Amino acid sequence: MQPTTHHASTMMMNQVDLRSLVSKHGTPLYVMNETYIRHQIRLFKASFIHSKIQTTIFYASKAFLTLAMAQLIHEEGLHIDVVSLGELMTVIKAGFPSEKILFHGNNKTSLELDVALKHHVGYIVIDNPFEYENLINKVTQTQKVMVRINPGVEAHTHEYISTTKHDSKFGMSIYGQDTVELIQAITSHPHLEFCGIHCHIGSQIFDPTSFQKEARLLLEMIHQLKVSHNINVTHLNLGGGFGVRYTHEDDPFDIQVHFKHILDYIQDTCDELGLDYPHVSIEPGRSLVAQAGVTIYSIGATKTTYSNKKFVFVDGSMADHMRTALYQAKYEAKILERPLAAIEQTYAIAGKACETGDILIHECPLPQPHVGEHLVVFTTGAYHYSMASNYNRLLKPAVIFVSEHDARVVVKAQTIDDLLAQDVLV
Ligand SMILES: Cc1ncc(COP(=O)(O)O)c(C=O)c1O
């Protein structure tokens, strides 16, 4: 399914003309194809199944979370992961069943642990011994926990979104004696039910064998825990990180083919090591939502610098589009009113923030843009709204969900009053 379709004088999201959304809501504007998100979720659910292995999918809510999104995830029958009090309270407010919530993160506060326990979240993923100490000082009834393990697998991805090199801040090393000690402490605690190992090897991963390498290392660890320490691991969470197509250079693997390979591989490895098959989970974030989203901007000035670099300025910035500045991420864009027009030359798309690095797209081939036209940047459904800030006191855009024929506001645009609401005048 295509999240958007192009016509000579506009772009459509399902049956909705994106120009009508601009007229009604202005720009910058985040627009998400709800039908596409549901389609992706169903594809993941249909692909991540196995005749011998139980499976669960947790949506990694950090990619994009609002009340409406949490409701949608629940309607589609997924579990969900959260990493902060804000994410946790959003999913609880949306009516998400607490037993389907997994809470991870490397430095949960005392308040976060209190709230997670009060709401009986399904799983708490312990990142380090300090968190374990905090938790046992609070827990008074059975709580399922997992331990975040760093297997040191190098996934081919950007340095900042690779989470498992040996010097990463996340989790306990697969090779550490302190890791075994932590798991032993958990298994002997009367209120903690140790149910497994949690891991995440990075994001925007295109090589499916990275997940097999990850699974192999973790299953070997599970085997070691069993034979050397008599500890039974029943759950294995492989994390997220499945790559998506931001530009034509990206080539995500086919999950329908490769999820089966990964699960078959886990079955074979368990057979080889003499292990019972664990319950296997994944935590996709961007692969469920990134391609569903576009951001629409109004085109302002164009500028040619003394060195002949061509800029197009838009009315948003790195405050609503962080990933280019953060990860040198690449994007594609088209002019809303002329998506099929012949390309004239390559421009840098820059925002209005007071930063030289405020570039949304470094090299964007476009027809000659005109003031008053609009630029549609593709694949902005993940880590855009969720990373948006008020840098330069810029306002966060509204978020629109587009179903088959209708569009609805799921997050209102921030106003100047909203912006000033937390400030205290002395
Ligand atoms: C622990 C964990 N799980 C899942 C994800 C989701 O990754 P992605 O959005 O690339 O699927 C992340 C992303 O950082 C993560 O840290």
Detailed description of the structure:
The chain is α/β, with parallel strands linked by helices and 426 residues long. The chain folds into two domains: 5-32 and 290-417, Lyase, Ornithine Decarboxylase, Chain A, domain 1 (Beta Barrel), CATH 2.40.37.10; 34-289, Alanine racemase (TIM Barrel). It contains twelve helices and 21 strands. It has helices at residues 18-25, 34-47, 67-75, 85-93, 110-118, 129-136, 177-187, 209-229, 255-273, 286-289, 323-327, 416-420, and strands at residues 5-6, 11-13, 16-17, 29-33, 55-60, 79-82, 101-103, 123-126, 143-150, 172-173, 192-198, 235-237, 279-282, 293-304, 310-314, 333-335, 345-350, 359-366, 374-378, 398-402, 407-411. It starts with a strand and ends in a 6-residue tail after the last helix. The structure holds pyridoxal-5'-phosphate. Pyridoxal-5'-phosphate binds at residues 60, 63, 104, 163, 200, 203, 239-242, 283-287, 382.
